[in-house]
Amino acid sequence: MATQVPTGVARRHELIRKRDGSDNGDDRPSCDRTVALPDESLLHCTGRTGSRDGQQSPTLRERAGDRRHALGGYRRRRGDHVGCLEITADYEYRGLVAEAWDRLRGDTSAWPDRPFYRSIIEEQGGAALDVGCGTGRLTLDYLAAGLDVDGVDNSPEMLEICRAKAAERGLDLSGRLFEQELDALRLPRRYRTIFVPSATFQLLTDEGAAAAALQHCHAHLEPGGVLVMSFIATLWGNATRPAQLEWSTWRLVAERPWLEQDSQIRRFMRTRYDHAQQLQHEENRYELLVGGQVTHSELHRREPNVRWYTRAQIRHAVHSAGFADVRLTSEFTNQPALESDAIFCVLARREAS
Ligand SMILES: C[S@@+](CC[C@H](N)C(=O)[O-])C[C@H]1O[C@@H](n2cnc3c(N)ncnc32)[C@H](O)[C@@H]1O
């Protein structure tokens, strides 16, 4: 099915607004500039996890091999033709989403969620589980600090990068990383802390899956163990509430130098919101450029991709999964959550039996 792009949108210059997320634990990087969207033809793609000519999307390993030469790999594969891969697989974090994840976010070392989860893990003692551990932002740092942390993620590509980073840092991940779905967890250990950072719980857009995920987290906690999850309260931030299911304009989310000299990676995004269902829909377009020319692009569609919750709804869901002592905190603090908080955390305890 062809991607729906308004006529002429690719030729228009779009004003890119800064997304306020650089210092609050939001994973999405920000930038502030005016750009031209690329040629419109690049935005029309067909196929499921494949290119226009029906070839399968190359895997991360095939494309990247040695990650330093990933861009050369793209160029060799595609020659002069710049195609656009539409990526609509079962798991979201694949292709350039995974490969460019760390680079597009930049330095995350000052994000306030790191000390927040760490202090809970240390207070709880024992083992902790990082749900949606991705490329290991928190798992690897906590392991390096001597904490007993496992990670689980449903993206083999994110996990592969996590393993590569661990090897670079001399960290032993044996028996610690699991490729599983959050709503079907079956892990060998039980934990004193399960943390679900970066609003990853909101990626479970199906209410049944979300309920199952909470039950699985409950089952994987030791008695007295704690679940802690971050939530983005209002997905459209401070902007006026968007109209029902109306696509935003495409905007540049981030642009960074890529692996080779004179090359860049950039990400464009557009969103729409179903207010009745409390669901966000999102399309992301990733582009690799060499010498200012796009040499590879991917379109990632996820409809829906994020669910939002009122405070009452998430409290109820967590209670219903059997948790006690449910409390909501303001951002990454121990203060009670405020209505005005852009981010809040949910903490809940599996009762000591
Ligand atoms: C927003 S990213 C956060 C990554 C990492 N925690 C960080 O802070 O950098 C969400 C992660 O959750 C994973 N994920 C998404 N849905 C999942 C699911 N249903 N089960 C397990 N992992 C999932 C993605 O693959 C991705 O790595």
Question: How do you describe this structure in short?
Answer:
With 353 residues, this protein is of the alpha/beta class. The protein has a single domain, classed as 3-Layer(aba) Sandwich (Rossmann fold). It is built from nine helices and 14 strands.
Would you give an account of this structure?
It is a single chain. The protein has helices at 60-64, 70-78, 96-99, 101-105, 113-124, 137-144, 156-169, 207-219, 311-320; strands spanning 13-15, 34-36, 84-87, 128-131, 149-153, 177-179, 191-196, 221-232, 251-257, 263-274, 279-290, 293-307, 324-330, 343-349. It is built from 9 helices and 14 strands. The strands form 3 sheets. A 7-stranded mixed β-sheet has the order 6-5-4-7-8-14-13, with helices on both faces. A 5-stranded mixed β-sheet has the order 3-12-11-10-9. It has one domain: Vaccinia Virus protein VP39 (Rossmann fold, 3-Layer(aba) Sandwich), CATH 3.40.50.150. It is α/β, with parallel strands linked by helices and 353 residues long. A hairpin with a 5-residue loop joins strand 9 and strand 10 (263-274). The model is unreliable at 1-82 (pLDDT under 50). Bound molecules: S-adenosylmethionine. The site of S-adenosylmethionine (SAM) has 18 residues, from loops.
